[in-house]
Amino acid sequence: MNVAEKLKILANAAKYDASCSSSGSARVGKDGFGSAAMAGICHSWSADGRCISLLKVLMSNSCVYDCAYCVNRASANPPRATFTPEELASLVVEFYRRNYIEGLFLSSGVCRSPDYTMELMIKTLELLRNDYRFYGYIHLKVIPGASPELISRAGLLADRLSVNIELPSRESLKLLAPQKERAGLVRPMRNIKALKLQNADEKKHFKSAPTFAPAGQTTQMIVGATGESDLDILRLSKGLYSSFDMKRVYFSAYLPVSTSPLLPGREKPIELRREHRLYQADWLMRFYKFDAEEILDRAGSSNLDPALDPKCAWALRHPEFFPVEVNTADYEMLLRVPGVGVKSALRIVRARRLASLGADDLRKMGVVMKRAQYFLTARGKYAGAVAPDSPFLREMLSERRDMAQLSLFGDASAPALPSGITLSDSTALAMCELAAPVEW
Amino acid sequence: MLHIYDGTFDGVLCAVFDVFALRDEDAEILPADRYSGASLYYTREVNADPSHADRVGNMLERFRPGTLRRLYTAWLSHDEHVEEYILAAVRCAVAHKADPFAFRQYHAIFELDRLATLVGNEAHRMLQFVRFVKLRSRVYAADIRPEYDVLPLIGAHFHSRFRDVAFMIRDLTHLRAILSNPREWYIAPLPAENPPLDADGEYETLWKLYFDNIAIAERRNPKLQQHFVPQKYRSFVAEFRDGADARR
Ligand code: SF4
Asked: Is the per-residue pLDDT at A421 higher than 80?
């Protein structure tokens, strides 16, 4: 089989992975070539609007496991292929030299055994780093069940490691991926965290010691294949951030790749809107100092409102805080105003030291007045078209109009995301992890 | 007074220096190539002294590191008002003893920041969209057609990344090119006519194959793709050049 055929198979098999980010590492070396930019760089966007930053392929799509939700499961019948480390390394180098990519995102099916697969992947990384003297970005997906020694070696070659948590609950995992166990997925996460701490300590004493996975670790889970609520998912993701120092938790809406009776069938629409809302909620937790329990409180629904972005939803549930006066409110409170992002909140805080700000000034600070007008006053003036406690407000802020387009199977050509895509499209941004947090 | 400068960024900083030195309250600054020779103002030529430019630059950097680069980025827009905004920004910095970009409520600062963002964003796009071909001479070459004069902002990135080879990036809009070799990089003028680069055979084909296969058909979203890869850049981005749709 030639490289083109392998590339086709192994890219196709890798495309369901959500992450393609190349951020979090600033690598540069005197010998050789290549570099990693702290913020990451996207190089292209595929027809689904997702960013392409890294060459995202599998080492092999052969797999001895049989996870029901996966196209590569042992019982499925896709064409199978395995790269040799030499083929893959040279592909990375040639693509990189043409500025197509920032580096490699390497994952794999479990080919023969976890350790055998990891060895193949590590061999590829060693070729890149040691033989080609390649300093670009490498993200390696750790194979569950791989030995700690191999994880330790991989971390010294890669910028980022990740282990998929796969599904939002233990029970779902047992049901759909019986050969994997929650404990078996969490163990390598713990390993990575420990190795990173140990390495940080070593580096204190020996400055020249190589850095272990400088861009840290991430994970991802499939949503919509099983019955967990958004609150379950956000709680889990909060736990993952805090227990393992995750840099990112990715969500991927389940796509019907299997006819297993355990999984939703083709008639169920893909939950892209839900994925989008989860990313927004995740964003609120990471950059806006919201807690999972605030975004969804036990008293209310345990699922995010599909028609409202979670920040607006929170503000509507808490009229007691609004409107806030932009000239006096503290930074944390400004961050909670829908339509005010991290950047504009910082600008407001800097600018108001000089002179008090009016509504027009706010626009110049980058505030999205369409939403913010209902939640703030400037020099005591409220600019909203309706009062903050108006029963119509909810309607005015909701994005219900776009819902029709979400049923992909009703109209195959309809765009998957709501119309009027702007830079505040958090799913796309979340996926490429670039750019400042979106302005809400 | 109308202050005519030599069309370089150092020159515009020198002009600002002169405006302060002469206590010119009613100053206008123009690059030589935009000066028509006729003006109602009293006209003078700016004294191009690098130490003057340094003094203005150092003052701005003291308030907040990075301010000078942002000013430079905005200046690269060559907007017809940019000198006016730069002068206003320096005046604002001096008056408040602070980073001028903190004062976005002022028209001139807002505009200056907007220009810097436009140019800066396009420079970032070029980091994304430059596509090299490997020539027979083993030199790597790329063509771009940016709206703004962004070469000075992207040279260092590519030079440090591809430090072991020789490459060039031709800006066909402004007819200038980055030339880089392991020792140094610089910008040189291009002739008016530039023959197209050869196609890059095997790896370009493999790349397009990858590009087509990494998309998830069920999530197709041309609108979002369009947003990130605007039409105006597609003519020089290999995977879009001959119509990604045509290959499907
Ligand atoms: S182990 Fe990975 S590749 Fe194999 S079936 Fe499970 S999810 Fe798919």
From this structure: no
